[in-house]
């Protein structure tokens, strides 16, 4: 059943964000961490779909204004050099605080795609308030890059909440080795379950609207997204 929702851009302190909420009473929320395109139309659509499933969604803007709606891929890649782990984690925790304290939610999880998928894992390892962690094709290399202070693979074993890891078999960015290392780290945990999805033939960012011309991407989206929404409801409701 689809919920009626409200949705708008908001400010949380100095941070830009996008808030989508069911109009019916509810107690669960999700912090959404975007892919390279930032707080663009695609992420806002995801937020609204989460809200229609009965869960508040608050989306982070890593670029403080620009989005993939206005910038091309190369311009967006040029912003990556300014994205630092300590500052990003601080901003994400401000948004978590807003979900708990200002919006009064009882349980909040975190979900991310691509670079946001990596940050979802890192944040969940550092902040054990989160009730779940969903990482769609997280951009995690076998070793952290020089610009990354946090080792997502090493941290994965410290996540204490139920975690869903989604990997597309034809990912041209994240090597299979990274996925296997993440899966191994998650499976070693004894305190929380891991749900792992593998979609052969699907590509990195397979859920994005512009990638639905490929059958493998359409199938991966059709199968994974409803399961993700059920996972969210089961862990924050």
Share of residues in strands: 15-25%
Q: Radius of gyration over alpha carbons?
A: 16 Å
Unreliable stretches, pLDDT < 50, 5 or more residues?
A: none
Structural class: alpha/beta
Give the oligomeric state of the chains in this entry, treating copies of one chain as homo and distinct chains as hetero: single chain
**Can you give the mean pLDDT?**
95
Provide the helix percentage: 25-40%
End-to-end distance, in Å? 15 Å
- Helix run count: 7
Order of helices and strands: EEEHEHHEHEHEHEH
| Total number of beta strands | 8
Largest sheet: 8 strands, mixed
Shape: globular
Lateral strand order in the biggest sheet = 1-2-4-3-5-6-7-8
GO molecular function, one term: hydrolase activity
InterPro entries: AB_hydrolase_fold, Dienelactn_hydro, Dienelactone_hydrolase-like
Keywords: Hydrolase
Protein name: Dienelactone hydrolase family protein
């Amino acid at each position: 059943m689809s919920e009626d929702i409200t949705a708008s851009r908001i400010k949380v302190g100095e941070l830009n964000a996008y808030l989508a909420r069911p109009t019916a009473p509810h107690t669960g929320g999700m912090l959404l961490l975007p892919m390279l395109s930032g707080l663009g139309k695609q992420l806002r659509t995801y937020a609204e779909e989460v809200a229609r499933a009965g869960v508040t969604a608050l989306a982070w803007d890593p670029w403080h204004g620009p989005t993939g709606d206005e910038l091309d891929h190369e311009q967006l890649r040029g912003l990556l050099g300014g994205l630092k782990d300590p500052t990003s984690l601080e901003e994400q925790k401000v948004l978590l605080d807003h979900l708990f304290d200002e919006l009064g939610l009882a349980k909040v999880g975190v979900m991310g795609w691509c670079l946001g998928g990596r940050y979802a894992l890192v944040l969940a390892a550092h902040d054990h308030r989160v009730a779940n962690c969903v990482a769609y094709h997280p951009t995690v290399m076998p070793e952290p890059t020089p610009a990354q202070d946090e080792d997502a693979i090493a941290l994965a074993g410290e996540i204490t909440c139920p975690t869903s890891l989604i990997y597309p078999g034809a990912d041209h960015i994240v090597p299979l080795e990274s996925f296997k290392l993440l899966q191994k780290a998650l499976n070693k945990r004894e305190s929380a379950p891991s749900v792992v999805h593998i979609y052969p033939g699907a590509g990195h960012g397979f859920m994005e609207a512009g990638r639905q011309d490929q059958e493998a991407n359409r199938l991966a989206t059709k199968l994974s997204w409803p399961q993700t929404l059920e996972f969210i409801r089961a862990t924050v409701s």
